[in-house]
Amino acid sequence: MASKTYLPNFPLVGEEGTWESIAELIRRQILPKIEAVGDKLFQAEMRPLPSDAAVVPIVSENWSRPRQDGTPQFVYLVSGQGLMLVKGKMLALNAGQGYYLPKSALYAPYLMLGNRILSCDWLWLKIHPFGVVVLRSRLTPKAHYQSAHFIVAERRLADLFLEWERERNHADADFRVTKGLLMAFFGLLARSSPFLPAESILTNNDLPLPLQNALTALHRAYNKPITLNQLAGYCGVTPEYLCRLFRRYLGITPWQYLERIRLRVAQYLLQETGLSVADVAFLAGFNDLRHFQRLFKRAYGKTPNSVRSKRQVRQKPFLRVWG
Known about the structure:
Elements: E1 9-11, H1 19-37, E2 46-47, E3 53-55, E4 67-68, E5 73-86, E6 89-94, E7 98-101, E8 106-108, E9 111-113, E10 120-128, E11 131-139, E12 144-146, E13 150-152, H2 155-168, H3 175-191, H4 209-220, H5 228-235, H6 239-249, H7 254-272, H8 277-284, H9 289-300, H10 304-308
Parallel strand pairs: 1-12
Antiparallel strand pairs: 2-6, 3-9, 4-8, 5-6, 5-7, 5-8, 5-10, 10-11, 11-12, 11-13
């Protein structure tokens, strides 16, 4: 029996993976569609699951198997054709269509028919009590790409979502009300700013261009797995030369710089969201919880739990479904 071929998983480091690009998509695509059709935008119909349908195999197992999330989410197809497994059926979306996945719905993000993998570009919006976590992903027949997680800690977004969900589940749901709440939700989201670890060095034009490009890439995909070869290739230089640039101008290695970014993100999440330490570690890009705890204590002189214990807001851990 032939072994299964898994698609490689890469960070989405181009302009399309920035928050500015995502916010523009919300303004130019999602908001006009909601204005036209209301929350029908997120009510696509299911089809029977074809016999040759299978979950697309991707290196990260989190993308390659059905799962149930502890948080509700909106999905929106920016371009291409998208196939998902939802509750044992197939969801087929065309560009400009979306779907609402309630909490605990069993789904898999990508389906293929036979050996055919469709190219598609997605937005994923997970709703939490503290706000929203947004991800952009792109699937091609040859690879899978992910942006960083954009954490928008704006509790008004969670409030608007809860009001929308209550209204849509009401026996006498008013289309105008659900439409207005969704317009307010996505309008506020497009005007909000996610937490991004500020770094004045990104504006230093005296740095060599390959180093500037490397710093930009690390900030755009800080919580995604990336190899030195990938980073150097993106910058058009060899790995050895890129490391020399980091040591000469910054006095650290690329991974020490990346670690610093991730720890800043983790500190913010612990202070502002009420997420579990394990979920914070995941969102910040750490795959080893104990390693994260050691690094955090070394950097800040206190454990992640001691920082998180100051927050009164708590929530159940959500399944870490984005690899």
